[in-house]
Structure formats: structure tokens, C-alpha cells
Write a structure and sequence with these properties.
There is one protein chain. By secondary structure, the protein is an all-alpha fold. It has 16 helices and no strands. It folds into two domains: about 250 residues, no CATH class; about 240 residues, no CATH class. Helix 7 packs parallel to helix 12. The longest helix has about 55 residues. It comes from Natrialba aegyptia DSM 13077.
Length: about 500
């Protein structure tokens, strides 16, 4: 890996991580304030059940155009920059047409859809959902387009704006007395602000700076749409994989059960923010390295990122299992104790999703979107079937178990595809993973031995301190941190 590439990745990662931190802190505060003070479990569950339903509907509005556009922006910014304005204009026109149709259909059928879902009370939520779909679609598009330009600072800024604006408007409307419905409208306003800023920057700083070619390259619009097909399939499978369990929990159980399940998933999302930031940062580089026929450099980037991700997430997942009960009870209150077993099972998902966040976008930029789509489609279908089987038997824990089982298969397939593309050094990676697991296991045993003798507060503090010590040991063993450099810096 050249120093220039490494510095670019580090700068992009820092910007993205800061934005993810702002977004996730605002999300965590929103989760805490709504769950602890403003909404009861029924209201909290109803809000996020509807958001899960809207995420599934949004699949028809997004159809993979954003990611496909980002892939060709990344390619043509090097090859033929004059095509960039044509790519952006075509993508935005296509998105406007599709999003408008989906939103109008939802406005027509929202009453009937609420009845089909077995809860006519959510009809007004679904009506507001038509606006939610439009603004969230363009909020997400601007972030992905900046990723294609490798302008990760802008992408990071839009995400941070979305998080802060969403928090402010959701809390304001709930405090004004509009309840869960007001919270959903707060989401709409927050995403509107982010989308407006993102599209404005995209137009002023990128679209207008490229001199358009005399004509759109013949066949490029067709390739743009064609590549969006596997991306649509992958995104559809990914959203179904993430949201269908929430939708099924609400349909088969109760809004309170949805609250428990959603809370567990939101906590894992917060933990996963650094891995998502790193994956978002490094993925455009794979397209650039492949186009330049520099696969050795691409392999080094991926292997280094994978080991460093596992350095963080294997100890984090083990710690999550240990502290889940005192954490949920102390932070969210005893009303949400039902989220504890969900969170403990989803700790395994944390490790799996960390690998996925690092890998999935990278495969798209390597041109393997079709293979990933097939894998995601198969595991999502399996997840749907397992949820139908396990939720009636085991409740919300059944949904968490189904997620972990199917995601294990998906991660294995993703790693196989990456290995086929980059010829990873499996022996070296295996040794690193072994060291991480052994050291984490020793530290976890130490925590479990002292757990019966301390209070919940002491246990949480001790777990955090021991987690930091575990990471320090792993960082030194793996070579990520050189103790001599640390001592020299202190002096």
C-alpha cells in the first residue's frame, strides 16, 4: 500500500468516523430519551415497527441506482470525467420518477395496507411515510454519490447533519405532544434538511465543475441501469434481512415485543459504527486498484482492515454478552428487561456484521455485485423462513437467533468471493484471528470470575476497563501499536 493511498484512506476514515460518531451519538441519545422518558414500550415499538415497514417499501423507490451511479462515477472520474454530468443527471431523473410513483401509490393505499398488516391505527404513520420515503431516498443518494467521488468528507458531513437534525426535530415534536406520530414526522424533517444540503453540494461542487462531454457515451445509461439490477437485489435482500424480522415480530407478537427487539438491534448498530465507517471509506479504493491492476495493494488494504476490525469487535461482542443485563436495566429501565436476551444473542451478529460492513461495498466496487446479490438473496429468504419458524416458538429471541444463523452463512460466502478476487493470505489471517480469540477468552474468564462479587455499576466500569486492557494487549500482539513509540511519545 503506497503512503499516498494509506493517507487518503486514513483521512477519509477519520472524517467518516467523526460523522458516524455524531450520527450514532445523536441516535443513541434519541433512543435513550424516547425509551426512557418520552414513549412507553408500546409507542416506541409502534414507531420503529412502522419505520421497518417503510424501509421495506423504500426498496421499490431506490432500486440500486445510487450505488450503480457511484460505481460508474468512481470509474469515469479517472477515465472520462466528461461523462460525470450525464451520469448524475440521468440518475436523478430516474430516481425522481421512481420515488414519485412509489410515494403516490403509498398515499393511495395506506389505509388498506394498515388493515392488511392487522393494525389500522398505523394508517396515519404510513401516510406520513410517503414523505419519509422521498426525502430519505435523496438523503441516502447524496451520501453514496459523494462516496463514488471519494469525497468522503462531504458524505460524512451529510450523515452528521441527518443525525443532528433528526434528533432535534423528533424530540421537539414529541415534547410538543404529538407522540410517536410526531417522532416519525421529526424523522421526515431531519432527512429533508440533510437531503437538501447534500443535493445542493453535489450540484455546486461536483456537477458544475465537470465540463460535460458532447454526448452521453453510447451504452453507458444501459450499463448504469443494468448494474443497478444486482445492486437492487442485494439491497432488497439486505433490507429484508434487517427489517423483515422487526415487521414479523410486530405482526406475530406485540408492539412491546418490537420495542425489545428494536432496542437490541439499535444498541448493536451503535457498536458497529466504526466498522461501517471503515468499510464505507475503503470500498472505493478497491474499484480504483482493480482498474489500475494493483490487486496486491487491494489485498493488503483488505487484510489489514479485517484484522484491525476483529481486534475491536471480538472483545466488544464478548463484553456485550457479559454486561447486557446491567446495562439495559440501568440505562433504559426495568420495563425494557426483555431486550437483554435479544442483545446477548445479537452480540454474535456484531462480529458478523462488522465483517459484512467491511466487505459488502468492497465487492460492489470489485464488480462482484451479482455474486453478492445471489448470496444475500438466498440467506434473506432463509432468514424469513427461520423467523416464521422461530418467532412463534421462542419470541423475540427466535428472531435474533435466525439473524445470527443466516448471517453466518452470508459472511462465509462474502469472504469466499473476496478470496477468489484477491487471493487472501489465509494462514496469516488465521493466526491473527486465533490470537484475538485466545486473549479475549482469557480476559472474559477474568471478568466472569469477579462478577458475582461486585455491583452492577462496578461491573460495568470494570468491563469497560478490562475491554480497554484487552484491546491494548491485542494491539501490541498484532503489531498495530508499538510500545516503544508510545513510550517515546509520552516522554
Amino acid at each position: 500500500m503506497t503512503s499516498e493511498t494509506q493517507n487518503h484512506i486514513v483521512r477519509g476514515f477519520k472524517a467518516t468516523l467523526v460523522a458516524r460518531a455524531i450520527y450514532m451519538v445523536s441516535s443513541a441519545l434519541l433512543m435513550f430519551v424516547l425509551a426512557r422518558f418520552l414513549l412507553d414500550p408500546d409507542g416506541y415499538g409502534a414507531l420503529y415497527w412502522v419505520i421497518g415497514i417503510l424501509a421495506v417499501i423504500q426498496l421499490f423507490a431506490d432500486i440500486g441506482l445510487g450505488k450503480s451511479s457511484a460505481r460508474y462515477i468512481s470509474e469515469y472520474s479517472e477515465r472520462d470525467p466528461g461523462q460525470i454530468p450525464h451520469l448524475l443527471r440521468t440518475t436523478i431523473i430516474a430516481k425522481l420518477c421512481v420515488v414519485s410513483v412509489v410515494a403516490l401509490v403509498l398515499l393511495v393505499v395506506y389505509d388498506d395496507l394498515a388493515a392488511v398488516l392487522g393494525n389500522p391505527g398505523v394508517a396515519s404513520f404510513l401516510a406520513i411515510g410517503a414523505l419519509y420515503i422521498v426525502v430519505n431516498s435523496f438523503n441516502a443518494f447524496s451520501q453514496v454519490a459523494f462516496q463514488g467521488f471519494n469525497a468522503l468528507g462531504y458524505s460524512a458531513a451529510i450523515q452528521a447533519i441527518a443525525g443532528v437534525a433528526r434528533f432535534a426535530f423528533v424530540i421537539a415534536l414529541v415534547l410538543a405532544g404529538f407522540g410517536a406520530l410526531g417522532a416519525l414526522f421529526g424523522y421526515v424533517i431531519g432527512y429533508t434538511v440533510a437531503a437538501a444540503v447534500g443535493i445542493t453540494i453535489l450540484y455546486e461542487r461536483f456537477y458544475r465543475t465537470y465540463e460535460p462531454a458532447d454526448e452521453f457515451e453510447p451504452g453507458l445509461s444501459r450499463r448504469l441501469l443494468k448494474y443497478s439490477v444486482p445492486l437492487t437485489a442485494t439491497r432488497s435482500a439486505n433490507v429484508i434481512d434487517k427489517q423483515i424480522d422487526t415487521v414479523l415480530v410486530g405482526a406475530l407478537l406485540t408492539p412491546t415485543a418490537v420495542a425489545f427487539y428494536t432496542l437490541g438491534k439499535q444498541i448493536t448498530d451503535f457498536v458497529l459504527a466504526p466498522a461501517e465507517a471503515l468499510g464505507f471509506t475503503i470500498s472505493p479504493n478497491f474499484g480504483e486498484q482493480k482498474a489500475a491492476d494493483q490487486l496486491e495493494q487491494a489485498r493488503q488494504i483488505y487484510e489489514t482492515s479485517l484484522v484491525q476490525t476483529m481486534l475491536l469487535y471480538v472483545p466488544a461482542a464478548v463484553g456485550l454478552v457479559i454486561v447486557a443485563e446491567p446495562f439495559v436495566r440501568m440505562v433504559f429501565g426495568p420495563d425494557y428487561a426483555g431486550a437483554v436476551p435479544v442483545l446477548q444473542v445479537l452480540a454474535g451478529f456484531v462480529v458478523l456484521q462488522a465483517v459484512t460492513n467491511l466487505t459488502s461495498d468492497s465487492l460492489d466496487y470489485l464488480g462482484r455485485a451479482r455474486a453478492r446479490a445471489i448470496a444475500k438473496g438466498g440467506t434473506s429468504a432463509a432468514n424469513f423462513g427461520l423467523n416464521l419458524l422461530l418467532i412463534p416458538m421462542l419470541g423475540v429471541v427466535g428472531a435474533a437467533i435466525a439473524t445470527v444463523i443466516t448471517h453466518t452463512v452470508y459472511v462465509a460466502v462474502n469472504l469466499y468471493i473476496v478470496h477468489a478476487e484477491l487471493s487472501l493470505h489465509l494462514d496469516r489471517l488465521g493466526r491473527s484471528m486465533g490470537q484475538i480469540c485466545v486473549i479475549t477468552g482469557v480476559m472474559a474468564v477474568a471478568v466472569l470470575l469477579v462478577t458475582p462479587m461486585v455491583s452492577n455499576l462496578v461491573m460495568l466500569g470494570g468491563a469497560v476497563a478490562l475491554g480497554a486492557a484487552t484491546w491494548a494487549v491485542l494491539a501490541v500482539v498484532s503489531g498495530l501499536v508499538d510500545p516503544r513509540e508510545v513510550r517515546a511519545a509520552i516522554r
